Structure formats: structure tokens, C-alpha cells
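help with this record:
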Amino acid sequence: MAEPSEPDLRLAEAMIFASAEPVKPSALVAALSEEADISAVIASLSARYAGRGVELVQLGGGWLFRTAPDLAQKLTRVIQTPRRLPRAAMETLAIIAWHQPVTRPEIEEIRGAAVSQSTMDQLLDAGLIAPRGRKEAPGRPTLWVTTPGFLTQFSLNDLRDLPRRDDLLVDIATRAPES
């Protein structure tokens, strides 16, 4: 693996730093020189930032800079953290994540309760879900999916990183009852 050029390293660093979303490999390929080895560029940047205040992490199918885990607790006293989502919104988001693309009536059926418009609006405003077409069914209901922002918010690189429902059921079944 050849050592990446300094201009390629600087450009990749600037792209990742400036982006609110994870920078995909395709974006790096398009921006860097033709001879740039993306793996070498990422490895070099990772090494540069290892142990620093920010670290290069792979999430949502791309790379971004994140606060070093050991400093995160100290920053919560200085930086406002986003508000937690209400339980109904978290339940709705979990159903969308595991069943996407899914319609609102399907979410309500799985959840066993109605989903208010304000719950959907909270998830939309937070950038965690997005409409993705319409289902070929009577009324043509909107299909909902999670966004790259969802992956980033929950520190996932890919939807395949979600725990499998079967694993969660096993975990619940093996827990000892609380006394």
C-alpha cells in the first residue's frame, strides 16, 4: 500500500470535517486524485487522529469525525445534547428500522396502538425517517424508511448492524427475574 499524497490527505480530511453526514467512499473517489488509494488515505487519517480529541470513525457507510469516547462525558457539561425522543417515537422508530419500508397502518398494527402525526413529525424533524414512495395498495399509503441520520445517531455503519429481533428475544428470555 503506497503512502497517500499530502494533498489527497488534506482534501479527504477537509471533506470529512466539513460534512454533517458520513462521507461515502464514492465521494472520496470522485474528489481525490486518480492514483489515490482510498483505503490508504483512511488508514493514514485514522492513524493521525488516533488518541486525539476527535477520532475518525466509520458509520452510516462512510467516515466522519467524532469526539473521542473518553471525552464525551466531559463535553456533555459544556455542549447541549439533543432531547430524548418520547417512548412512542422510539417504538415507532424501532418498527420502521426493523420492518422498512413500512406504512403507517403497518406500524400501528405492529405497535398495537395508533401513531400520532406529532410522533411522525418528531421523527421527520429529527432527520431519522423519510418517505420512500408509496405502497401499491388501496389508498397508496406512504412507505417510511430510516435515513443516514438514523445510522449516525445510533452509531451504526449499516442497517445490518441492528441487533436481530431473535437475539433480543433470547436476551430477554435469559435474563433472571428481578427481585
Notes: The two ends are 57 Å apart (CA to CA).
